[in-house]
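I'm stuck. Please check this protein.
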Amino acid sequence: MESVDVLDAEKRLEELVDRVEKGESVTITREGVAVADLVPAPVVQSRDRAEVIQELLEFGQGRRLEGSSIREMIDDGRRSD
């Protein structure tokens, strides 16, 4: 992992971000003391929309609201105190 002084990092930010995007990590230092790490962002895996909808439908099977109906909750939410 490369260490870069904060002033140098400001000048080279685009280059450093390009390197981090490719999987490298960079430590930002101030007066020789590590203050931050530039690391690749976690990979976000998208999920199939139909799969998510099916999971939500299955989750809702057999579940009931206790007390108020959905209509009552909507109406309550629209009322101002």
In short: Helices lie at 6-11, 13-21, 49-60, 70-78. Residues 2-38 form a domain with the YefM-like fold fold (CATH 3.40.1620.10). Strands lie at 2-5, 26-30, 33-38.
